Amino acid sequence: MVRFGLCRPECIRPNEVPTAMSITDSRQDAPASSEVPSAAVSGSLLGSGDHKAIGLVYVVLSLLFGAAALIIFLLGNLHLVQPDFLSSSASDTLLNASELGFVLLVAVPLFLGLATYITPLQVGAATIAFPRAAAMALWTWILSAGLYVVANCIDGGIGGGRDRAVDLGLLAIVGLVLALLLATVCVVTTVITLRSPGMSLDRVPMFSWSMFVGGSVWLLTLPVLLANVLLIYVDHHYSRPSEFGVSSVQGLQIGWAISQPQIYAYVIPVFGIAAEIIATFSGRRQPNRGAMLVAIGAFGALGVGAYAQPYFFPEVRDQIVWAAMGVLIVLPVLAILGGWAALLRSGRPTLRSPLGLALVSVVLVLLAVLAGALATITPLQLRESPMVAIGQLILIVAAALSSGIAGTMYWAPKFSGRFAPEPLGLLAILVALGGGVLAGLPWVVLGFANRFTGLDSASDALQYVSLVGDALIAAAAVLGLLALVGSFRGESAGSDAWGSGQTLEWMCSSPPAPDDFADLVTVTSAEPLLDAAAVQEA
Amino acid sequence: MAAPALPAAPPVQRPRVLIVGSAFVSAAMIMTFIGLIGIYLTQRAAIVGAGDTWLPKGSTIPLQQPNTMLFTLLMSVVTMQWAVHAIARNDRVNAYLALAITLFFGLSTIVMTWYLYGLMTLDISTSSQAVLIYTITGLHLLVLVVAMLFIALMAFRALAGSFDARQHDGITAAAVFWYAVVAVYALIWITIYVTK
User: How many CB pairs under 8 A join A and B?
Assistant: First the structure.
C-alpha cells in the first residue's frame, strides 16, 4: 500500500465525523476506519456504506440484467419473424420491459456502479459523499428491479393488461428512477465537493468529469420521466378518467426516454472511460484536454431530451431545435475522436483488451449518432418509422455494455487486486463489436424500407441478423461478468497496475485499503501521477 | 507496480457537501414539477384552444385557500432564513424557535391543502383535469412533508448540539430544499390556482 504522508486530522471538522450517522451525513475526509462498514473488509454487504462494495454490486447486477434484457429483447423480436412463437401482447410486454430496462437496469446503473467505486478514488476522497444514501439507493434499486421483473412476469409492464400488476410495475419504475437519482446525487456531489486540493474542475479525471456531466443531465431529465410515470400511475390507478393511463399509450408517453436526443445522455460516461483508458495505454498526457472536456460537456448538453415528447408535442420532431441537436451532436464526438487520434499518434499505445473495448464502445456511439443525424433529414422520412430509433437504442446499449466491460477490465485491479483474464477481454472485443453492428445496423437499414421497396423482401433476413447481434451483445455482457469474476483469480497487480496510470486511483493499493486517501494529497495537474513520476526521475 | 507518491496537502476547508447535495436534489425535484406542469399547460392549452373551459362544468377551485397557503409559505421562508441566521450566530434559542415556527407553517399548509381538497368539486376519477391537478398538488404535498422531515431531523440534530456558528451546513441545506419547495408552490399557485 502506498502512503501519502502524515495524517492531518485538523482538516476534518469535528462535526463532520459523527459517531452516529444519518443518511444526510458524509464522511468527507474522514479516514475510512473500522467505523466504516466495509464489505471488502468484513465480508458483509448488507447495510454496507462502503462505496466499493456498493459499486461492485451495481456492476455485477447491471451486467446480469444486461444479458437478461437482451435475451428478452431477442425473444420479443423473434415474434416479428416467427409470429407463432409468441402472441403479440406477450411480444409487446417483452419489448417494453427490455427497452426501458436497457436504461434503468443496465446502462445508467452500470456507469453509476463504476462511478460509485472509482470516482471517490479518482478525486482523492476516502469515501463517496453520503455513503448511507448511496447504500439506500442501491437497495432501493435492487428492490425496485425485483418488483419490475415480477410485474412484467404477471402482465403488469408498461401497457400490460392486469390492472394491479400494471400499478406495481409503474411503482417499480418510480422506485428505479428515484434510486438512480439518489445514486447520481452521491456521485455528482463527490465530484463537486470531495476533490483533492489543487484539483480544480478542469483537472478532474475524464471519467469523473463525464460522470459529472452525465449525472447532471440525468438529474435534469430522469425526473421528467418520473413525472410521466407518476401521471400514468395516478390515471391508471383511478380508473383511467383520461388517456394517460390507457394501456395503448403508456409506452408512447415515455418513449422519449429511449429515443434521441435523450438516449445519448445515457452514454456520456463512455467518453470518460475511453479517455482514461486511451491516456493510460498511450502513456502520454491528453493534448488539448480543455477542448476534450468541453466536447464531453457539449455532448451532454445536446443529449438533453426531456423536452422532446412527441406524445404531448406531436410537432416537436419537426422543429429546428430537435433537428439541430441531432446533427450537431456528431461534432463533439468527432472532436473527441480527433483528440484521441492525436494522443494515440503521439504515444506508443499498448494494445490491451480494455483499449479495444473502449474503442468499440466509441465506434458504436458514433454509429448511433450518425443514424440519429440521418433521422433528422426530412426527405429521408426516417422519422415516420420506429426502425432507426430501435437501431439507435441497440447501438447505444451495446456501446454502454462495451464501455462498462472496458471499465471493468481496466479497473479490475482496483476491484480485486488482480488483472482480469485478457483472453476473455479480447473475445469480448469481437463479440461486442460484432453484436453491436449486427444488432443495430439492420434496424437502421430497415428504416429505409419506405423508400426502397426491395428492402421489404430482405426484412426477415435483416431481422435474423439483428437477432444474432442481440445474442452476441448478451454474450458480451456475460463475458464481462466472467472477466470480472475471473479477475479474482488472475495475476496479482500493484497499485499502479498498468504501470502508466495518470490519475489518483492508481496511487492507492489494489484493491483499495480502508485507509487509502485518509491523508489528503495535493495535485498540480490533471495527471498527478505523471507529475510525481517526473519529480521522482528528476 | 507501485505508484510514485504525491506531496501531502495542507488542511483544507471542504465545500459544503450537504448543501451541494441538497441543491442537486432540489434541482431534480424542480424538474419533476416542470415536467408535470409542462404537461398540464399543454393539455390546458388544447382544451381552451378548442373553445372549452379548462375546468369541467360544475367544478370549482376556490382561490382563498391557495392564497393563504402562498402567504404562509412565504412567511416560512422568512422564518427558515431566521433559523439559518440565528444558528450562524450561535443563537440557539432563536434557531429552535424559527425552526419550530417553520414546521408549524408547513403543517398549516398541509392542513389547508387538505381543506382545499374538500372544497374543490373535482373528482379525481372523472376527468383528466382532476388527474393532473391532484397529481401535481399531491406530489407537492408529499415533497412538503419530506422537506418538513428534513427540517425536523436537522432541528433534532441542532438540539443534540450538532450545529454551531462555524458549521451549520445541515440547517442551511434544509433551508435550500425548503426554498425550492416554496418556489415550486409559487409555480403551482400561478399555473393551477390562479390561471384556472
Answer: 192
Any A CB within 8 A of B28 CB: yes
**Cβ under 8 Å to B: A residues 264-323:** 306, 312-313
Are A309 and A262 a contacting pair, CB within 8 Å?
A: no
Is A13 in contact with B167 (Cβ distance < 8 A)? yes
Asked if A24 and B173 come within 8 Å (Cβ–Cβ), the reply is yes
| Partner A contacted by B101 (CB < 8 A) | no
At residue A454, the pLDDT reads 76
Task: For residues A353-360, give the mean pLDDT.
Answer: 95
Whether residue A27 is contained in a domain is answered as no
Assigned domain for A33 exists: no
Under the banding of pLDDT at 50, 70 and 90, the label for residue A94 is very high
Residue B45 has pLDDT above 90, yes or no: yes
For position B172, which CATH number holds? 1.20.120.80
Alpha-carbon span A309 to A414, nearest angstrom: 41
pLDDT at site A38: 42
Which residues 6+ apart lie within 8 Å of A112 measured at CB?
A: A58, A180, A183, A184, A187
How is A136-164 classified by DSSP, letter by letter? HHHHHHHHHHHHHHHHHHTT-STT-S-HH
Residue A15 clears pLDDT 70, i.e. is over it = no
Look up the pTM and report it. 0.91
Q: Residue A473: give its domain's CATH number.
A: 1.20.210.10
Q: Give the number of domains in chain A.
A: 1
Task: Output DSSP code: residue A418.
Answer: B
Query: Between chains, do A2 and B5 touch, taking CB under 8 Å as contact?
Result: yes
Q: Which of A24, A28, A504 sits opposite B14 (nearest CB)?
A: A28
Query: Is B101 a member of any domain?
Result: yes
Residues of B in contact with A506 (CB under 8 A): 3
Query: For residue B8, is it within any domain?
Result: no
* Average pLDDT of the residues in A507-526: 82
- Core vs surface per residue B112-131: b (16+ CB within 10 A) or e: bbeebbeebebebeebbbbb
The structural domain count of chain B equals 1
Does the distance separating the beta carbons of B39 and A234 come in below 8 Å? no
Domain carrying residue B45: 17-194
Question: Which of 75-104 (A) contact B at CB < 8 A?
Answer: none
Q: A535 or B69: whose pLDDT is higher?
A: B69
Residue B140 has pLDDT above 70, yes or no: yes
Q: Is residue B9 part of a domain?
A: no
C-alpha–C-alpha distance, residues B100 and B158, integer Å: 12
Whether the predicted pLDDT of A5 surpasses 70: no
What pLDDT, on a 0 to 100 scale, did the predictor assign at position B11? 59
- pLDDT of B96: 94
Which has the minimum average pLDDT: A230-244, A413-427, A474-488, B138-152?
A230-244
DSSP chain B: -PPPP-PBPPP-----HHHHHHHHHHHHHHHHHHHHHHHHHHHHHHHHHTT--SSPTT----SHHHHHHHHHHHHHHHHHHHHHHHHHTT-HHHHHHHHHHHHHHHHHHHHHHHHHHHH----TTT-HHHHHHHHHHHHHHHHHHHHHHHHHHHHHHHHTT---SS--HHHHHHHHHHHHHHHHHHHHIIIIII--
Task: Indicate the DSSP class of residue A103.
Answer: I
ipTM value: 0.92
pLDDT of residue A175: 97
The chain-wide mean pLDDT, for chain A, equals 87
Counting every residue written for chain A, the total comes to 538
Asked if residue B87 belongs to a domain, the reply is yes
Which residue would you say has higher pLDDT here, A364 or A19? A364
Instruction: Give the structural domain span for A508.
Output: 46-537
